[in-house]
Amino acid sequence: MPTILVVATTGPEAQDYRGYCLAAVAQRYDIVLITPAEPTWEREFIIDFEIADPDDAQALVDAGQALAGRHDLAGVVTWTEWYLVQTARLARCLGLPSSGPKVMEGARNKAVARSLFARHGVPSAASMTARSLLEAALAADTIGYPIVLKPASRAASIGVIRVDRVEELPDGFAFAAAGARDGIESIEVLVEEYLDGPEVSVECVTHRGHTTAVAVTRKTLGAPPFFEEIAHSVDAADPLLDQVAPVAAAAIKALGITDGVSHVEMRLVNGRPRLIEVNARIGGDMIGHLVQLATGVDLARAAADTACGQTPDLARTRHSAAAIRLLYPNTSGTLTRCHLDDDFAADAPWLDQITFQRTVGDTVTLPPDGDMFSARVGFLITTAATAPEAEERARTVQERLDLPTEPHIPGARSVRTGHA
What is the pTM of this model? Predict the structure, then answer.
């Protein structure tokens, strides 16, 4: 089999959310891995590895060259948002296929992406950069409330908040600025037009400049003013795909992405798609797994194929639906129980999986004091013939879950009432 270099994080969360990617790629490729720590669960899927911090440019190149010296590499890929630019640089250094580091920098920096969308006529949101509260106030006056504040180069809704009135701006800007401090490509804050409408993502595969929209992911968000995604569903028969596919392809082309898997987020404003952002990798929260359950298309393998210059297999072999619910407690505090009745699970063949990422005694902290990572207890995935049925099954399982907490944080409150 050809050999592919994967740059990835390690640890339990990487196994929970990206383990399926490594397993899928290992069926067709020999995998060599660069990861920041000693591999554990990954060992059954890889033939070799190097330990290096991908944020250390020289260490990453040294590790890549060491692996290239021992193996004939066909390509390099990552499904980690934070490593997109570094991996593109490594591919360039090793003479392997890549859309290029400049392209990945544009995809990672939302301010640059907005300007490219505008230049190429891709419907997006009005956006301005703010380096201070004063600049944010001036931008908000120009754009008009409500606005969205977000870091220019983070992911997973970190630091993203809606601000409805000028009185809310100082706290909102502080929240976004705190999220932006760890940005890699930029530590700036964006002030953007609020796009009012349902949120979806389009899962796309691009090969040699041609983009195929594989599936639409429908999203459920937590309570405002935050934008945590708490549920997703994919239906192979979703009629929205034909409407959003051209906009997603135009956004990918505007960024200059020529090869790879992209997760294109947008909102439907008055029924028309408007771009939020393009993530130049497989969507998180097990979306790639949902796509495979619903359509049979393996996005992880497609990512590897395009990284190696091979034509991906995008033929649909399934015509069903799948849904995921991300599990949160009602209040911040200490988790006192984490349980699903075994008999119920045994009688639910449509329950694809349930994964608990916290144990009794762990502290879970909801926004604004925490974020989606500190608050999430786990996730569950269901299948069905249609998305509404899969979503209803997911709600049924969630109602059977017992996830009580003992509040101990002053002012702790439920932020997801009505969205569970």
Answer: 0.91
